[in-house]
Amino acid sequence: MTSSVRRSAVSRLILAAPLATASLLLAMGAPARAESEGARQPPRIVSVSGTATRDVTPDMATIVIGVTTRAPKAAEALNGNSQAAAKVIAAVRQAGVESRDVQTNTVSISQNFRNRRDASGYTQEPDGFTATNSVSVRVRDLDKLGPLLTAAAGEGANNINSLTFDYSGRKKVADELQAEAVRNARATAQRLVEAAGSKLGQLQMISAGQIPMPRPYGAMKMMRAEAAPAAAPVEAGEMTITSSVQATWTIE
């Protein structure tokens, strides 16, 4: 009887030992899993944008001066247009524009058509040819812009495709504004995080927005100048240079 009781007690002890070991392993594994799951949590972040602007006075301009001619035949239209364009370019050069600042922009010739009504309705019939030649001109002295336009019109220029004012130091100003935009973004992020009772962490990402290019003005038509015309009035006004960034910081 005593021997049987001892064997039963030993059996219970042997069975209990593996159970205790398994419980210990489970208990040891629980914190490890919790720690692993915590490590996979994404960091807290704050994303903001920063902008900086500055107004400057333009000191240069780019214009596209064109000559358009019509003639019954293609060769006549092209020949007449080429002669007129050569005179316009010469006038531009005489106005003080260097050769490096004059570049051909468009040379084209196309057939014209007109509508004609007959018994069957409207039909199109040939109506001569149109030739166009335009040059892009960079004017580095705005005091010369008005007289240049008048001189070009006097030599046959009859349209301006665009007029764009620019600032020669725009790149330098844009670089300075970009650094200012970054500082503004950081100040905004820090203000938001501290208001929430936390601390700003490490910079995670930063990207710069595109620098806006000067905006061209609408197309203008030019009438051929008469004798001793007054210089065309030109007002440059001001232009705004803007820089912006997007940035993300962690929150500690």
TrEMBL record:
Signal is among the record's keywords: yes
A Pfam family of this chain: SIMPL
Domain of life: Bacteria
Cleavable signal peptide: 1-22
Example GO BP: DNA damage response
Keyword terms: Signal
Record flagged with keyword Signal: yes
PANTHER family: SLR1258 PROTEIN
Protein name: Secreted protein
